[in-house]
């Protein structure tokens, strides 16, 4: 998952020719996959003129699981199918001292907060410590 806020991703969607073409597109093999809650991995093929928006961990905490931070990965192209490709990612997140806790509109008597309040710095430190074990 992404650690902080929203991630905006533009994916390469044409192996040859202009990236802004509206027809005759040949998306590269491999690329972004997203894991569903069932554990199944699905392709997230590029859509011309569109960005992928990933919700990060802190968005999941802020929205009390209304938006989920799905695990994702990038697959290499199959052998012999290698093409130059480019992707552009823009990561967002709150200031390091903001306390992230469930928004009032995302919790209530029948939906209590599922996460303890935390700052982005504390969250990233915990994620890095867990990934370096």
Provide an overview of this structure.
- This protein has 133 residues and is an alpha+beta fold.
- It has 2 helices and 6 strands, in the order E-E-E-E-H-E-E-H.
- The protein has helices at 57-62, 120-131; strands at 6-11, 31-35, 41-43, 52-55, 72-75, 87-91.
- The strands form 2 sheets. A 3-stranded antiparallel β-sheet has the order 4-1-6.
- A hairpin with a 5-residue loop joins strand 2 and strand 3.
- The longest helix is centred in the C-terminal third of the chain and has 12 residues, at 120-131.
- It is elongated and about 50 Å long.
Write the H/E string, N to C: EEEEHEEH
Helix content: 10-25%
What's the mean pLDDT score? Answer: 86
Beta fraction of the residues? 15-25%
The strand line-up of the biggest sheet is 4-1-6
Mind summarizing the main beta sheet?
3 strands, antiparallel
* Structural class estimated from helices and strands: alpha+beta
Characterize the overall form. Answer: elongated
Rounded radius of gyration (Å) = 18 Å
- The unreliable regions are none
- By DSSP (H or I, 4+ residues per run), the number of helices equals 2
Distance between the termini: 17 Å
Total DSSP E strands:
6
């Amino acid at each position: 998952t992404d650690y902080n806020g929203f991630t905006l991703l533009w994916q390469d969607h044409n192996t040859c020719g202009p990236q802004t073409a509206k027809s005759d597109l040949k998306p590269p093999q491999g690329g972004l996959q997203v894991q569903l809650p069932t554990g199944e991995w699905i392709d997230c093929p590029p859509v011309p003129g569109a960005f992928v928006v990933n919700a990060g961990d802190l968005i999941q905490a802020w929205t009390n699981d209304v938006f989920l931070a799905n695990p994702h990965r990038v697959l290499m192209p199959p052998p012999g199918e290698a093409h130059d490709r480019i992707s552009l990612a823009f990561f967002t997140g709150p200031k390091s001292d903001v306390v992230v806790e469930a928004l009032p509109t995302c919790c209530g008597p029948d939906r209590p907060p599922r996460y303890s309040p935390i700052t982005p710095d504390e969250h990233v430190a915990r994620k890095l410590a867990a990934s370096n074990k």
